[in-house]
Amino acid sequence: MSYTLQEAEKLLSIMTQAEKAQILQWIVRDFGGAFSGIESNPGVCGGEPCIVRTRIPVWLLVQARSLGVSESELLRCYPTLRAEDLSNAWAYFRCHQEEIGRQISENEEA
Does the pTM of the predicted model rise above 0.85? Predict the structure, then answer.
């Protein structure tokens, strides 16, 4: 068992049932390719995937993180964002790295 799995096992042993259920939902969503909290509409931000309730594109958050902006800074700078929104954005990025990378490149050129 790897070090990370050992840490996860320890954390699970001290979590509440509700916390475990939330983690399970994240894992199922990640494996299933469904990304609640992320939407793409042709009339919003050129159809780029954005955080629901906002016009904040996933690529913008990923780019900010790659430049060293912390999650707490992102939440402070974008008061409409929630921690769950960032988790959704990171999960979306993990499954769509090429798409998000292309969007970052396109927006850097603009």
Answer: no
